[in-house]
Amino acid sequence: MSKTSLSQSRGNNLPKPKINWGRLEEAEKFAEMVKLFRRGKINRDDFRRFRLQHGAYGSRMTDDYSMVRVKVPAGEIFPEQLERLAQLSEAFSIGSAHVSTRQNFQLHWIALEDVSEVMRGLAEVGLTSREACGNSVRNVMCSPLAGTCPQEVFDPTPYALATAKFLLRNPMNQALPRKFKLNFTCCEKHGMARIADIGLIPQRIDADGKTYAGFKIFLGGGLGAQSFVGYQLEEFTPE
After folding, report:
1. Could you tell me the pTM of the whole model?
2. For 150-166, how does the pLDDT look when each residue is reduced to its tens digit (9 = 90+)?
3. Bridge-partner residues for 56, per DSSP?
């Protein structure tokens, strides 16, 4: 992390993240759990659940390497965070990162003992891998055109960020039966509202002389082994 940073080379005028998704103490806890696992104090199944909860997939071939999935809630990422991802990939991964279809970054072939260092580096710039894997609420998505789409009724980004903030580390979703996905989109045309467990499209209605903001909501969509198009819950759900 010793290279000249963007802020040093370009001043302090770059946009900064407003929400800190990271927690340094989770990196410390992960390092502790790895040591216990290596000593045989934690069985493989319990460690696997813990590892997935913290966003690290194990290799099918060995326990020695992991893929760390970094959540980017609502697809909102900032220059210093991109710089840190590049630094972490060069230091601990393969020098490149994969961008997933659900607004995550994936760093591959990270030594298990280095995962906590990656988590620490992410937390320092407000990023996290928490609940990016496993049976949890996954990254909350938002259309990349949100805020600029000429067809949108209003920008859903603040709603997506508020939803992600409420659900992250929420005790009620730490041990779900299966993974759960939410997608916000800007309009009927752009985004993936119909292929998520919950998809939301901004709407406005006029009633009683007032204008109300809300969402058209779709449920039960997905692109797994058995794909489904979500069904419409109702035309308008107030915010």
Report:
1. 0.91
2. 999 999 999 999 999 99
3. 68
pLDDT (tens digit per residue) in 218-227: 999 998 888 8
Report yes or no: 66 and 112 within 8 Å, Cβ to Cβ. yes
CB 140 within 8 A of CB 131: no
d(CA 70, CA 92): 14
Q: How far is CA 49 from CA 52, 75, 134, 149, 176, in A?
A: 5, 26, 7, 39, 12
Tokens of 230: 């979500």
- Residue whose token pair is 């809630």: 73
Listed in sequence order, the residues at least 6 apart from 182 whose beta carbon sits closer than 8 Å to its beta carbon are 137, 140, 141, 163, 196, 197, 198, 199, 200
Within this chain, do residues 24 and 90 fall inside the same structural domain, yes or no? yes
Answer with the one of 94, 124, 154 that is the final residue of a domain.
124
What is residue 113's DSSP assignment?
G
Structural domain for 179, as ranges: 141-238
Q: What is the DSSP letter of 191?
A: S
Q: What is the DSSP pairing of strand 141-142 with strand 198-207?
A: unpaired
**Extended strands (E) in the chain:** 56-58, 65-71, 98-99, 104-111, 141-142, 182-184, 198-207, 210-219, 231-238
CATH number at 159 reads 3.30.413.10
